[in-house]
Amino acid sequence: MITRFEELDWQSTPIGDLMLRRRTEPAVGQEIYEVKLGDEYLMSSLFTVAEEELANLGLAAAEGDELSVLVGGLGLGYTAVAALRDERVRALTVIDRLGAVIGWHERMLLPVSKELVNDTRTTLVEDDFFAVMRAEPADDHAGYSAILLDVDHSPRHQLDPTHADLYRVSGLRALDRHLAPRGVFALWSDDPPDDDFMVEMNAVFDESAAHVVDFDNPVTGGVSSNTVYVGRSRG
To answer: pTM to 2 decimals?
Structure first.
């Protein structure tokens, strides 16, 4: 069978050529949306369980009924939409470095775009999440109830080498300044749990855990897994 791709968008970006495409996946008989950056596959709508679990696990650890949530990395939108389905969320801010990705959702090109963009709690921001985390929070900012991050492949494998500092103690402490007291940081990773990174997490956060998220892989016929790290601010 010849797989036919429909290119929905292509743009040159500061970190490489970005492509959004759609195809039919024979293994499941449905349309799949994929994102490539240069020669790298960034994400696919064929596998969204772990992206949604990033929100579910992160918000399960969050306390209170009026949650302010920050998502780093918009992508196909599944983490953000999963967060919006938690009725406690009163405000959701999503930061993405690539305006093209925000544009895809504003143009309703993706399956969850309408649900994301039409929700009045949603604010989409074009910015560098990592630079925002390095900066001091505004004096009047009360802190986020949860920060959910899905940008790099894992703490060891970054899309941009300038991201590496966030995954060390100093970077995690800088991020922690943006959390409310007892706020939650959650991170998606494509790699198995990393003991060395857990040392970094434990140095900054309480109740740190690495959750393995298993999901069926219709392409291989087996089970694949990702990791979601969760930690709580010491306030």
So the answer is: 0.94
